[in-house]
Amino acid sequence: MGKTKLKSGKVGLKESEIQRQIIDWLELKENQGKLFFQRTNNIPVSQMRNGKRIFRSMAKGQKKGFPDILVLKAGRMIGLEVKTKTGKQSPFQKEIEKSFKKNGGEYYIVRSLEQVMFELDNPTCKHKKIKQK
């Protein structure tokens, strides 16, 4: 349970399992006063009506592709997009990543808790600044 078979035949964690590990660690750090985080949920809510699944549209101001987790740490704004080893960004996620970086934020595609721990404890400017027009 919580595993998915990769194309290579190896078994890897599902995105939800990776996210749960990350959130557990972030909660520990938040309780220690070391950061603030918010798990975002951009999936429109659905419900059954007359035997059909009906999806509510996203709330006003909510953006498709927003990172799964937003972290504030020591003046840094960090977007974490959780993916499996083979997961890829959607076009919406790529646009949000550009917006984060253009406006001074950090954005990481993370595939493990260890990667999150490294990125949060080793602030670097890996991304190139996008020149404003």
Kindly describe this structure.
There is one protein chain. This protein has helices at residues 15-31, 91-102, 113-121, and strands at 3-5, 11-13, 36-39, 46-49, 52-55, 69-73, 76-82, 106-110. Helices cover 29% and strands 26% of the residues. It has one domain (3-121): Trna Endonuclease, Chain: A, domain 1. With 133 residues, the protein is an alpha+beta fold.
Please provide a brief summary of the model.
This protein is of the alpha+beta class. It contains 3 helices and 8 strands.
The helix count comes to 3
CATH class: Alpha Beta
Structural class: alpha+beta
Largest β sheet strand count, sense and barrel closure:
4 strands, mixed
Element order: H for helix, E for strand: EEHEEEEEHEH
How much strand content do the residues show? 25-35%
Tell me the number of structural domains.
Answer: 1
Helix content: 25-40%
- Report the CATH topology name: Trna Endonuclease, Chain: A, domain 1
Overall average pLDDT:
83
Distance between the termini: 49 Å
Work out the radius of gyration: 17 Å
Shape: globular
Number of strands: 8
In what order do the strands lie side by side in the largest sheet? Answer: 3-6-7-8
CATH architecture: 3-Layer(aba) Sandwich
The poorly predicted ranges are 127-133
